[in-house]
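FAQ

Q: What does a record look like?
A: Structure on top, sequence underneath. For example:
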C-alpha cells in the first residue's frame, strides 16, 4: 500500500449535519424550503452543482456567486467554533502516521472550507490536500483522486481510498483505487475492490493493507 486517501465531509468529520443547516438557511433566503430529500441529492457532489440545484429548486435568478458566498459565510461561521470528528478518525490518522504510511485529503469542498475543518482535524496528518479549487472536475469524476496520486507520485492501484458517499466511491473506483466505504447519509453496497465498514472504528492499518493484496 503506497498511500491512504481520505474524503473529508461525512467521513472524517460530521459536517453533513452542518451542511444541512447552512443549506436550509440559504434556501430559506431564496424563498424556498429544504429537507433531507434535497440534501441526499447533493452528498459528495460539487459546489457548483449545489448552487445550481438550489437555484433550480427555488426558481430564483440570484447570481450563483452570491449564493456561493452565502454558503461559504454560513459554513465558516459554524466551523469557526470547531467540528465534530467521526469516531475513530484521529486514531486511524495517528496509526497511519506511526506506520509511516503516506496520506492525502481529497475533498469536493472549497479550500476555505477544508482549511477551516483542518484546524480541528490537524493539517499535519496529510502530506497532500486536494480540494475543489485544485481540479477542473470534482467527484464523481476520477480527477480528484488521480490528482492526489500524482502529487504523491504513487500508483492509484496501490492506494486505498476512504469514502462515505456514492459519488466519492465512484470517483475513487474510476481512478483505479481500492475503496473502503463508511456510509454516512446514503447507503453503499459492497462491490469489487470495495469494502463497506460500519465505522472508522472498524478500520485499521492491517485491514487497509490487506485490501491491496
Amino acid at each position: 500500500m503506497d498511500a491512504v486517501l481520505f474524503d473529508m465531509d461525512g467521513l472524517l468529520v460530521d459536517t453533513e449535519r452542518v451542511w444541512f443547516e447552512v443549506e436550509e438557511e440559504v434556501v430559506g433566503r431564496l424563498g424556498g424550503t429544504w429537507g433531507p430529500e434535497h440534501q441526499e441529492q447533493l452528498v459528495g457532489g460539487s459546489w457548483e452543482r449545489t448552487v445550481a440545484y438550489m437555484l433550480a429548486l427555488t426558481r430564483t435568478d440570484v447570481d450563483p456567486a452570491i449564493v456561493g458566498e452565502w454558503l461559504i459565510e454560513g459554513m465558516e461561521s459554524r466551523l469557526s467554533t470547531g467540528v465534530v470528528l467521526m469516531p475513530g478518525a484521529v486514531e486511524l490518522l495517528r496509526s497511519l502516521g506511526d506506520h509511516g504510511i503516506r496520506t492525502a485529503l481529497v475533498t469536493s469542498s472549497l479550500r476555505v472550507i477544508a482549511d477551516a475543518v483542518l484546524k480541528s482535524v490537524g493539517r499535519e496528518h496529510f502530506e497532500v490536500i486536494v480540494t475543489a479549487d485544485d481540479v477542473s472536475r470534482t467527484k464523481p469524476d476520477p480527477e480528484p483522486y488521480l490528482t492526489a496520486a500524482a502529487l504523491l507520485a504513487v500508483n492509484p492501484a496501490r492506494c486505498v481510498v476512504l469514502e462515505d458517499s456514492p459519488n466519492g466511491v465512484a470517483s475513487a473506483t474510476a481512478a483505479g483505487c481500492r475503496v473502503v466505504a463508511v456510509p454516512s447519509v446514503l447507503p453503499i453496497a459492497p462491490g469489487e475492490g470495495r469494502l463497506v465498514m460500519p465505522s472508522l472504528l472498524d478500520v485499521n492499518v492491517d485491514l487497509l493493507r490487506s485490501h491491496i493484496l
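Q: Is there anything notable about this one?
A: The chain has a mean pLDDT of 93.
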